[in-house]
Design brief:
- With 266 residues, this protein is of the alpha/beta class.
- The protein has a single domain, classed as NAD(P)-binding Rossmann-like Domain (Rossmann fold).
- Helix content is 41%, strand content 14%.
- It contains nine helices and six strands.
- Strands 3-2-1-4-5-6 form a six-stranded parallel sheet, sandwiched between helices.
- The chain is globular, with a radius of gyration of 18 Å.
- Bound molecules: NADP nicotinamide-adenine-dinucleotide phosphate (NAP).
Length: 266
């Protein structure tokens, strides 16, 4: 591939001239933000996309733009998946396995960031449970559906540098909850999962990667106060204007007490 892409390349630019007819993708969290745009771009290039979403009533209208963009045989279907419930995860996996249609790529995109303390239905801290454990359970169960030479892409974040996983206290039972430490831990887990999945399945030609998708203003900071969001945006903007790398954006953000990142170790 001779094309060079950079931080501002769009999904459509990357897929320009590529026909994905006959290719099938699973995207978690296709109802918003990066997952929605990924689905739109893939179906507009002919791919069949299964969007796994936690709220079908919200996702149906939210993904109208994806269906409108479909061309060259591209299509979108939705399936219910609440990553914060292992029962829902297994039900989704069972349905996909019963359907039996293979995937050329799985994109583990869904996520929550810096939420107030909460637990998943199964009692795990909500960011670790949603971002990592739900995906871990889902993807390992449906791994037989991933074709030989298939791809797994796990959306991580540069925030993974903020904290390692704490296997002694993954649910913040022995320490004060910090929403950013919890997010960082979950993103470290996302990255390590991709590394290990890649190692375990490379004999089938499968490649797994975790990615930092860049900084995009999506619904991700939905728990921020307007003041905290404003501060984060100013930090990102200042870093962009000074021409610095995305890494510096996250590091600067991590130093900002007002956006609650002060305890990050990055
Ligand atoms: N945006 C950035 O700058 C940025 C930077 C670094 C990493 N990331 C990563 O990129 C990924 C996508 O984030 P985004 O920015 O597109 O955020 P977003 O707009 O908030 O989208 C997140 C998606 O995840 C879904 N989701 C949340 N909890 C779920 C659950 N329990 N079960 C199933 N789906 C669930 C949401 O569903 P609803 O629509 O129902 O809420 C939504 O579709 C995340 O993993 C995030 O950590 C983003």
């Amino acid at each position: 591939m001779a094309e060079k892409f950079g931080a501002k390349s769009t999904a459509d630019e990357v897929l320009s001239g590529i026909n994905l007819k006959g290719k099938r993708f699973l995207i978690t969290g296709a109802s918003s933000g990066i997952g929605l745009e990924t689905a739109r771009s893939l179906v507009s290039h002919g791919a069949s996309v299964v969007g796994a979403v936690r709220n079908l009533a919200k996702a149906e209208p939210a993904t109208a733009s994806v269906r409108d963009a479909a061309s060259q045989g591209g299509s979108l279907e939705l399936i219910n998946l609440d990553l914060a419930s292992l029962q829902s995860v297994h039900a989704c996996a069972d349905k996909l396995l019963a359907d039996g249609q293979p995937f050329d790529a799985i994109i583990a995109n869904a996520g929550v960031m810096a939420t107030p303390f909460g637990r998943t239905i199964d009692g795990f801290e909500v960011q670790f449970g949603t971002n990592h454990l739900g995906h871990f359970a889902l993807i390992n169960q449906i791994e037989p559906l991933l074709v030989d030479n298939g791809r797994l892409v796990v959306l991580s974040s540069l925030s993974h540098r903020g904290a390692d996983i704490d296997l002694d206290d993954p649910n913040f039972e022995q320490q004060a909850y910090d929403p950013w430490v919890a997010y960082s831990r979950s993103k470290t887990a996302n990255s390590l999962f991709a590394v290990e999945f890649n190692r375990r399945h490379r004999d089938r030609g499968i490649r797994a990667a975790s990615v930092m998708p860049g900084n995009s203003l999506t619904d991700l900071p939905r728990h921020f106060s307007p003041e905290d969001l404003q501060e984060l945006l100013q930090t990102v903007d200042a870093a962009h204007r000074s021409g610095s790398a995305a890494e510096r954006v996250e590091r600067n953000s991590a130093g900002s007490r007002n956006v609650g990142l002060g305890s990050s170790r990055s």
